[in-house]
Amino acid sequence: MGLLTSLKSSISRATTSLFAGSEPKRIGIYGPPNAGKTTLANRIARDWTGDAVGPESHVPHETRRARRKENVEIKRNGKSVTIDVVDTPGVTTKVDYKEFLEHDIEKEDAVRRSREATEGVAEAMHWLREDVDGVIYVLDSAEDPFTQVNTMLIGIIESQNLPVLIFANKIDLEDSNVQRIANAFPQHETVPLSALEGENMDEVYDKIAEYFG
Amino acid sequence: MPGITTDDDGESGGSQTGNPSDGTASDDGGIQIDMISAERMDGMRTMEKIRLILDGVHDGNIVILEQGLSPEEESKLIEVTMSEINPDGFTGIEIETYPGKTNNDGGFFGRLIGNSETNKLTVIGPANRIETLHKDETLISTLVTRT
């Protein structure tokens, strides 16, 4: 009886280990528009696969569909962690096509972009509820983190019991204030970085391996 | 002076799941505020709550929930709001609650028994009529315009 139990336990551990090793974790990159999510996704993908995920832009809602870069193998301290990076559209509760007009975009194109942006936000919410195994939450460290979207999204992530890392991006900016983000979400670890300049990426990869490996 | 209507327990008119904005308070140029009690929301399904909120917001009303939405309901609210945005009219919602200190206080068990997230006053309005002036852990200050 004891032998049988021991055997079943061993098989179970082996099976778990097999699947854990073979199925990459899907890590969603979330945050408000213009936090630098795609810049980060591209930085990670380029560093470890040589390819980019998608185009970067200062125009809000440039990413209007979730994009996935599969099998990104990150090697840290002699171990390797394989993840699928899912770059998601910036989450918001409002989209007005007139905002795009301020970026010299014609009305017809602005209306199309706004429609795609709304679909993208809805898609991002759907991914968050059902299709990601962990979350990297990206914030612009030069902006006030006490926004409703941030409060709601962190709450939604916590309610899903997903592991989450908060990345305080854009530390290369003069107004960057990482401590303000750490104070806003003290229950989570905050990692400073500049995805654009590649600053502090070693710690970024250490934390990704630690949290999602 | 803005017109204010309240609906505290469903007894002041309308059905339990109906829209409290059936009145005409906003027709005279004022701003209608629907204050919805926790009791009224308690028996509703997620989509009933979302419809109650968004129908009011579509009418240009400010909706105040005595007890906020759960994270799952907030996620659905964002999703449904996005599906109803129209370039010629509705541009979305502005929503404010106090930052949730309770997020982790109850831990996993607290969330499991529904003890952590929803006990928070929530203000929701049309994005083109409500603007947050200031927000911190203890104060939400908003500017509401008529158009």
Description:
The complex is a heterodimer of chains A (213) and B (147). Chain A is α/β, with parallel strands linked by helices. Chain A has one domain (24-212): P-loop containing nucleotide triphosphate hydrolases (Rossmann fold). Helix content of chain A is 44%, strand content 19%. Chain A contains 7 helices and 6 strands, in the order αβαββααβαβαβα. In chain A, strands 2-3-1-4-5-6 form a 6-stranded mixed sheet, sandwiched between helices. Chain A is globular, with a radius of gyration of 19 Å. Chain A starts with a helix and ends with a helix. By secondary structure, chain B is an alpha+beta fold. Chain B has one domain (20-144). Chain B has 4 helices and 6 strands. Chain B has helices at 38-42, 46-58, 71-84, 107-112; strands at residues 33-36, 62-65, 93-97, 122-126, 130-135, 140-144. In chain B, the strands form 2 sheets. In chain B, strands 1-2-4-3 form a 4-stranded mixed sheet. In chain B, strands 5-6 form a two-stranded antiparallel sheet. The radius of gyration of chain B is 15 Å and the shape is globular. Chains A and B meet through helix 4 and helix 5 of A and helix 3 and strand 3 of B.
Major beta sheet, strand line-up of chain A? 2-3-1-4-5-6
Specify the CATH class of chain A.
Answer: Alpha Beta
Q: Helix and strand succession of chain B? A: EHHEHEHEEE
Strand order of the largest sheet of chain B: 1-2-4-3
Main β sheet profile of chain B = 4 strands, mixed
**3D shape of chain A:** globular
Rounded to an integer in angstroms, the radius of gyration calculated over CA atoms of chain B is: 15 Å
Q: How many strands, which pairing sense, and closed or not: the largest β-sheet of chain A?
A: 6 strands, mixed
State which percent range the strand residues of chain A make up. Answer: 15-25%
* Oligomeric state as shown: heterodimer
End-to-end Cα distance of chain B: 15 Å
Q: Would you tell me the overall average pLDDT of chain B?
A: 76
> Into which percent range does the helicity of residues of chain A fall?
40-55%
Number of DSSP strands of chain A? Answer: 6
What Rg of chain A, in angstroms, do the CA atoms define? Answer: 19 Å
Largest interface: A-B, 32 and 32 residues
Low-confidence stretches of chain A: 1-19
Q: Would you identify the regions of chain B where 5 or more consecutive residues have pLDDT less than 50?
A: 1-18, 102-117
Structural category of chain A: alpha/beta
Tell me the distance between the termini of chain A: 35 Å
